[in-house]
Amino acid sequence: MSPQIFKAAACSSDAALPGLAVSVLALSLIAPARAAADPFPEGPGKAVFIKVCTQCHAAEPIAILRRSKDEWKDLVYNMKGMGAEATDEECNVIIDYLAKNFGKKEEQK
Ligand code: HEC
């Protein structure tokens, strides 16, 4: 996706740059683009979700998923089982946030 596109553009525009400079340049291009396109709607639970669900991996790929509330519940407790630091209350807040914003279409009606 976009990281490769940015990197390819950085490489071809100045092939003489050393590898490190190219990747630093690529990162500086990606960072503002990501901030501008926050895929997570504002709402109750967002802050807890970001806090807990970025402990081990990026949150962005989660935004393309659509799952039922039960499926989100399984996933969140799965992550907790792997070591996510969150209280049961925080897990419930996250499950509600995900089910509301990234639920299955028929459940959101
Ligand atoms: C303790 C580290 C850790 C935390 C914290 C964590 N994850 Fe994960 N997550 C992983 C690992 C490791 C994988 C890949 C292994 C796997 O797929 O089971 C993964 C994979 C995933 C996947 C893809 C796998 C699938 O079943 O579709 C999703 C979605 C996901 N995490 C969502 C979340 C959410 C939502 C949270 C916040 C509740 C979260 N993660 C917090 C470690 C973590």
Textual characterization of the structure:
The protein is an all-alpha fold and about 110 residues long. The chain has two domains: about 1-35; about 45-105, Cytochrome Bc1 Complex, Chain D, domain 2 (Orthogonal Bundle), CATH 1.10.760. Helix content is about 65%, strand content about 0%. It is built from six helices and no strands. Helix 1 (about 1-15) packs across helix 2 (about 20-35), helix 3 (about 45-55) crosses helix 5 (about 90-100) and helix 4 (about 70-80) runs antiparallel to helix 5. Residues about 10-15 have low confidence and may be disordered. It binds heme C. Heme C binds near residues 53, 75, 76 and 83.
Q: Find the count of extended strands (DSSP E, 2+ residues).
A: 0
CATH topology of the largest domain: Cytochrome Bc1 Complex, Chain D, domain 2
> How many domains, in number, for the residues?
2
Radius of gyration: 18 Å
Q: What are the low-pLDDT stretches, counting only 5+ consecutive residues below 50?
A: 8-13
The pLDDT mean sits at: 81
CATH hierarchy: architecture of the largest domain: Orthogonal Bundle
Helix content: 55-70%
Q: How far from one another are the termini?
A: 31 Å
Major beta sheet, specifics? none
Bound small molecules, which ones?
Answer: heme C
